[in-house]
Each structure stands twice: as structure tokens, then as C-alpha cells.
Amino acid sequence: MGELMSRNNYKSICFVAMPYGKKTDFNTGAEIDFDKIYQLAIKPAIEEAGLEPLRGDEELTGGIIHTTMFARLLLSEYVVADLTLSNPNVFYELGIRHAVKPFTTVPIYAKIHPLPFDVGMVRAIGYNLENSTLSKEASLSKEAAENLKSELMKRIQQVINGPQANDSPLFELIPKFPAVELPYEVTHSFRERVNQDKEFQERLDKAKLNLSNRERGMALLKIQQELGDPRKIQTSILLDLMLSFRSVEAWNEMTALCESFPDYLKNHIFVRQQWALSLNRRNKPGDRDKAISLLTGVMKEYGPDPETLGILGRIHKDRYREAKEKRSIMASTALDDSIYAYTEGFESDPRNYYPGINAITLLIEKGDEESLKKAEELAPLVSFAVARCGGASSSNYWDLATVLELNCISSDWFSAVKVLPKMLDKAKESWMLKSTLGNLMMLKQARIRQGHDTEKLQEIINEFEICICDL
Asked: Which of 372, 386, 391 is nearest to 447 (CA)?
């Protein structure tokens, strides 16, 4: 399968928390060679399960060791923890893992004495050690190594292939104990600090150099097929691939990828949001109902937030556009649903301008006196929110697009023309331009109905259409 599959960079990481080298058990006086246990049983079990094993002492990143350790415990898809010596480091690492991940952690221990009471409830795999008659060494026999390897491999495969099941006592005993959901941007930051290989991202970028979105999507799909089973691939790799499909508007491929994710990743808030977005854009029968269900589930668990309600607002906005085109009686309901979602999204965090600017556009589209008054009230709040992000001085596409839309709404054509080229330059993906263009087209139609001149607005729309063709 070529260079991509000749390396193990993309397999899911199974981080191993355990003592290193030879250590003495103070209860029995036995000396245990943990490196041998790792090499003879733990490492081959993980590899045969299709994962990439990694012990803390195998990191080659340099820098502060705790940074790397925290990153691995937070981000590794799977963890094996050897609790044999009641080693404080291992127990500390297990505690961190149990506090942030409800499942995918497998404890093991040598049966030289019972596990401490506080971890006695965890489902751990025990293994046997043989005492030497000539020394105090307690070693792993060939038979015991095979048994441990077999049992550990089975447990890991159950975690990979089976239904999601809590193995953290906190998540098992405390209903609705909150898992730590790291934003995608934070995981990328960690990846930089643990020196993640950039080859995969480079290959994704190369695939996106094709001339059309269709060709780009096909190239990305080939990369996905070469990766193999998504349940055994690193989370960060899968997320990069998902966002690459989004960037080339490969909505069918993006949706199918999300559906193939392991349970722990399907349940991540960021994935559910993006999955809903792709379902809405794909829009096969039942897609939008499923998208709304995904977003409703997110809000039920985490409460309202601008991103979730922004995507929900977009779904209803698309419903409105389609119903309006068909002259359906349901158009007004879809418009109200969209306005409500966007407005609630902005009010959930007024620092986030995205749902606010969409609410304003739709209120102008509705056009009655009450809606126009509400749009007028929201405009300075949204303007302040985007100004906090840099406004026209920002280098972020969405900041600049929002400034442009506000300028068009207020008919400040001098400022609109000034920010337009900078905004177009920051647009790297056609779907971004299409999203903003849709709002400007809606604004134009509303202004025509209200008797306003739209010549300047049409000139800006023309520049968008040219730029979309170039991408």
C-alpha cells in the first residue's frame, strides 16, 4: 500500500503505564523485571490487536516529561496500566485516566498479592509470576507470558469491537459524571508538543491540490481506504481526515467516515457537531432529522452553545430556503426555527458573533416591523463581538466575513469594499465562500422587497462568484 502504510504513525496509540526496568516488591521482597513483561506479553498483545504500543520511556520528544505524560493519558485512544507494585506514578496516571475517560482503559497486575482496596472494584487482568529458588527474582514464564498476552489481546479487542462500556469507577458509580471533552484545537496543540509526525497532514494537503472537489474527494477516499479499520487509527488522524472531507465538500464521504468511527469518538461533542453538519449538507432522506437528533442530544448533555445552535440554525435555514423555493406553507415555520436557533446560540455566549450575524440576516429576511427592530438591536452587539476578535484587522476568514456582512447590512460600501479582498484572500475552502454568499444573496432579495438599491451589493456578490470558480 505504499509509503503511507509502511509506517505505524497512524495506528491508534495504546499507552502503557507501568514501572520500568527491575523493581522490588516491598511486600514480598521479589524482584520483577517489568521490561521483560512488556516485551514478552504486553507489547505483542497490543500489536496483535492492531494498535501501536507506547511506554512513557519510549517517548523521544524531550522537554518536560509531565507534559508528554498528560498528553498521552488525555489523548491516547487506549491505555494499559500495570498495577503490580502499587507504584504511585502508575496509580496517579490511572487516576487521571479514570477521571477523563469512561472507557478504553485496561488494568493488569501480577497476582503476588491482592490489589489495594481503592482499585479492588476495577476489572483487572491478573498474571502469574514464578519465584526463583536461587534468587529473589519473580519471573514471567513462557506459559504465563502467553496467557497474559492472550487475555490482554482479547480484552483490547473487546474494547475495540464491542459496545461502549464504562471501565472507570467514577463513570460507573456516578451518574452523568462529566467526561473531559478537549476541543479539536487543543488536541492539535498537544500533538505539536509530543512531536507528532506531520507526514499524514502533508499527504492530505497534497490530495487537496487536485483541480476539482470531486478529484480531491476521491484522493482523500483513497487515503482513508489505505488506513484500514478506523477503530484502530489514532483519533487525531481520523479528525484530520474528517475535516479534509469537509474542506472539499465531500459530504457523503465525510458522513460515512463519521458513521464508521468507534463509539468513543462518535460520542465526542466535536464529532457530533461536524457529523450533523455533513448530514445537513448531504441531505439524503432522513439526514436532516438525524442531524437535528445529534445536535439535540449534544445540548441535552452539555447545554446550549453557539457552535451547536449555529449548526442547528443552518439546518433550519436550509429547510427554509427549500420550502420557500417550493412556495411551501412550511417556509415560515422553518424561518422562525432558524431565527430562534441562531438567536439562542448568540445569547448563550454573546462573545461568539457567528450565530448573531446569521440571526440578523434572517430577521431582515423576515422583514416585519418586530423582526427589523430585533435585527437593529442585535447589530451593535454582534459588531462588538467581532471587534473583540480583531474585526477588519483580523486574519481569520469568519471574522472578516462577519465584518463584510455587517457593512453590507448597514450599507457602508466603502468599508465593505475595503475588507472584501482581504476576506477573499483568507478563503481557502469553497464551502466557506458559499456560506457567506448565501447570506448576501438572501440580504439582496430582502433589500429588493424593501425597495432598496442593490447595485453595490451585487458587485460584491459578483466577486464572490468569481472567487468560488477559482477555488
From this structure: 372
Q: Are residues 147 and 261 in the same domain?
A: no
- Bridge partner residues of 398 (DSSP): none
Q: Supply the Cα-derived Rg of the chain in whole angstroms.
A: 27
| Helix runs in 248-391, H state only | 251-260, 263-266, 269-282, 287-302, 306-325, 331-348, 354-366, 369-388
Q: In Å, what is the CA distance from 164 to each residue of 152, 224, 263, 298, 300? A: 18, 24, 6, 18, 20
Say which CATH number the domain at 146 has.
Answer: 3.40.50.450
Question: Within this chain, do residues 252 and 284 fall inside the same structural domain, yes or no?
Answer: yes
CA distances from residue 22 to 34, 368, 396 in whole angstroms, order as listed: 6, 78, 53
pTM of the prediction?
A: 0.72
Tens-place pLDDT, residues 407-454: 999 999 999 999 999 999 998 888 899 999 999 999 999 999 989 999
- What cell was used for 227? 488506513
Phi–psi pair at 17, nearest 5 degrees: -100, 115
- Residue 129 exposed, middle or buried by CB count within 10 Å (0-12, 13-18, 19+): buried
Quickly state the pLDDT bin for 63 (edges 50, 70, 90): very low
Total number of domains constituting the chain: 2
Residue 13: in which H helix or E strand, if any?
strand 13-17
Grid cell digits, residue 100: 477523563
Contacts of 39 (CB under 8 A, 6+ apart): none
The confidence score (pLDDT) of residue 5 equals 43
Q: How far is CA 433 from the centre of its chain?
A: 23
Predicted confidence at residue 1, as pLDDT, reads 42
Query: 331 and 229: one domain?
Result: yes
With CA atoms as reference, report the closest residue to 119 among 143, 165, 153, 84. 84
Let me know: does 98 contact 169? Beta carbons within 8 Å: yes
Q: How far apart are CA 471 and CA 365, in angstroms?
A: 29
Residue 26 belongs to what domain range?
A: 3-173
Residue 141 and residue 16 share a domain: yes
pLDDT reading at 182 higher than 80: no
Ordered alpha helix ranges (H), 53-138: 65-75, 88-100
Enter the C-alpha cell of residue 362: 434572517
Based on the domain organization, do 126 and 216 belong to the same domain? Answer: no
The alpha carbon dihedral of 111, 112, 116, 117 has a sign of positive
Beta strands 22-24; 105-110: pairing state? unpaired
